[in-house]
Amino acid sequence: MLLRLVAEFDLRRDVAPWLAARGWAAALDTSDNSLMLYIVNVERNGKIIYTWKGKQRSTHIGLYDLQTKQNEHLYMFEKDLHIISCSVNNERTLLAVSFRQYTEEERVSQLLQSVSKYLTLLIEIHPINNVRVLKAVDSCVRVQFLYPVEGRNTSTESRLLLVSEDKYIEQFDIHVVAEEEHKVVIQNSDQLPRARVVDDLIWAQWDMVEQRLFYIVPKESRSTLKCVQFYPDENFNSILESHLDISVNDTQLQLVNFGYDYCKDQDVVSKSLNLQVFTSKAGGLCVCCSPASDIPDEITYSVYFLHKGYNKTFTVSLERTESPQLKEVAFMNLDYYVAAYLPGQFLHLLNIQHPDLLCHSLFLTGEDARLDVLQNCSIQSPLMSTVLDCQLGSMYTVSISDKAVLQFLQNSKHDSERLAALHCALLYFQHTEDLEMQMIWWISENLSTCHSFDPIQEFIIASLYCGMCPETRNLDKLLPYTSLLDWIGIIPRITCATDIITLPVLELQNSKGFWEKLSSNLETVKYAEPHLHYHNNVLRSEWRNLSEEREERRTTVYLRNIFENAKKVLSHLDTWDSDERLVPLFQEEDYQQQLLMGLMVAQLKDHLMRHLQYVGKKKIDQIVLDYVANLLNLVHRIMKEVWRRYQLHSCIFCFDERGSAGEFAVFHIMSRILEAANGMCMPLPPGFHTLHLGLGVRCLPLHTLLHYIDNGVLHLTETCVRKLLKDLDDTEKNEKLKFSIVMRLPEALGQKVRQFWNHPMNANFIARKYVKLLLEKLGNRQCSRPTPERLSVPVEFLPLNYLTNMLAEIENQGVHPYEKQDHVNVRFVEETALKHTMMLLGFKYS
Prior knowledge:
Layout: E1 3-10, H1 11-21, E2 37-42, E3 48-53, E4 59-65, E5 70-77, E6 82-88, E7 94-100, H2 104-109, E8 118-125, E9 128-137, E10 141-145, E11 157-164, E12 168-178, E13 184-186, E14 194-199, E15 203-207, E16 212-219, E17 222-230, E18 236-244, E19 254-256, H3 266-271, E20 274-279, E21 285-290, E22 298-305, E23 310-317, E24 330-333, E25 337-342, E26 346-351, E27 362-365, E28 379-380, E29 386-389, E30 394-400, H4 402-411, H5 415-427, H6 433-445, H7 455-468, E31 494-500, E32 505-506, H8 514-527, H9 537-548, H10 556-573, H11 591-611, H12 617-645, H13 661-680, H14 688-699, H15 702-710, H16 718-727, H17 732-743, H18 747-753, H19 760-778, H20 798-812, H21 826-841
Parallel strand pairs: 15-19
Antiparallel strand pairs: 1-30, 2-3, 3-4, 4-5, 6-7, 7-8, 8-9, 10-11, 11-12, 12-13, 12-14, 15-16, 16-17, 17-18, 18-32, 20-21, 21-22, 22-23, 23-31, 24-25, 25-26, 26-27, 28-29, 29-30
Helix pairs in contact: 4-5, 5-7, 6-12, 7-12, 9-11, 10-11, 10-12, 11-12, 12-13, 13-14, 19-21, 20-21
């Protein structure tokens, strides 16, 4: 199963044995089909409040501590009460309880019309002292203590929220004093200060961890989402306002994470709007809602990505089911993802960090979407990555299983599934060598099965993003996280419609943490360039221009800075250990790749400096150098893993034998790496082209090898060509290979390496090139001096005599295109031409 659910708390496992040991076994008796033991609330520190029925139908309240795994009895009522809501303060000295005293039928039968139906009490429980009535009304009330930040001593003051079904919320300030024998007593209990927090709300959700209250109020034709932040030192502030195109039924107040009322009318629950707000650590703010659907074979749910400024509405076609009753979608907060789950139908993991492309979200159906422990949708997410199954009385921590994601990746048949799983594995999980190895192995096996994206590009870009962004604030907005600019694929059974929405309005004053990150995200949407992430378009153009320039170079200072950048990047690669040298990548000079490295450093640095001035130049320099060096290391990591997998060794540079099947497989992978690098305009490690060419010589037939060279797939390097010319003997087959390579060498490289092949064919080629260059230099220049004396033995072959005389005159005028090769002169050309001519005529030359 893709989601891993671990039971952190279970009433039957963690509470029932404790009750039985103390003689409270009545709580386990369910013969009357009533819920005797159930969860009431989950507090900020992970403490779970539950209630049970004792002997003589007394009502007890207990608390379970997730950290100590201990139970604690808090309070007992001698009457049989239905507890609606309960909360305990941080010091466990005060208990707020809301319960129903009588049903309507009981009031009528007992003539108690004047008695309030519901009662809300504030109780001193440490030690047990006084009881104060906070509310005695006919409408239901929920209670919730506010919790201070950890480590702050607030034992003399507690604050309590009261949420009324009459659509208002107020806050009570409770001061206590310590008396003799460690007794804690409420100070001025008859006049507790109170403040109205919200009026006329129709929906509210409590964020226990961050002490935030989200609520919705009707405003004109649409609803308005607001948020009140409670502070440890201050009172509270309204901090957010966002207009939503959501129709909320305002006949009854709807509450989320304010405890669970087991006796609530289930028919009312099924007809109410299913709406929840989720936040993420990176400043994501999402509103998830699923209205009731009138169409039996489909269901619709929407996610408002408020931090991105748009809403996505998903419509899922349901498979036929034996159950006639359609259950509602359950939403779970997994921080990086929001899960939308419909038992027996689908599990949709929505990427809230990068929600732009649907292919970055996992949509699972069938067996892949099965969650054994969650067979109903009566769940809440009181804490991040936590699910509370209210009916079963269990609380689970939820996480995505890395093994399940890799298994899903292996079995996927569609590009959308592969890309979503790849994205999840690279950006959600902590990088380990084992995970990287499995990802690389999968990539090496599926290079030809992915049609709408390049898995090598996605692996490199996403890995760099994941490794670099946590180091610096807002860097995630500037570095690319995917190789895709768009995606127009189709995911079976699901359609998506995207609508632009109004950005939320924040009222911040020196806020930190989540609000600061959310504000930064909103500023990016409002004011940033359309494509804020670094792109290689300018880099590609500049690299091409510098590569094609010959005599008219840029200024020396400019190029010197570029290559100095490359030198700094390469210095990072000197840390490769002996094990990493398994792949024979040579530390050789590669002008083109060093030029590209230096340019990438320069342009990425300029990009970051425009948006991260506050970081400082020194820090940005380090980020950029690390980014480019890590890019090269990732390519090397891919090479090392495939090298190990196919058990290759350095014999690939022995050109006297053909390559193995493993070498051919590695050659194919290297070709795809080169294709990915060209697509992203990214540099490759030193020696990559040499290694690639060496494998090509061993694995490819000559005509294919030459085709790859002519089309730029294989690059001729000095190291490989020199070794090939020196090591191969001059058999007819090798002569053909060598001559074909020599014919294709760039002029500068040819002058360096042709001298290593002492063969008439090579000498003939050199001579012809020499004559051609001399004649091009001559141009329209006229010969004014008499013919000089011949430099070699006269040969009665007039065309040759004329040619050598003309070349000698040009040499005497100071035109020496081959200045660095003294053995190339008129004598060399004359002898080579004569030998070649006599061979063609069938004469023996000595």
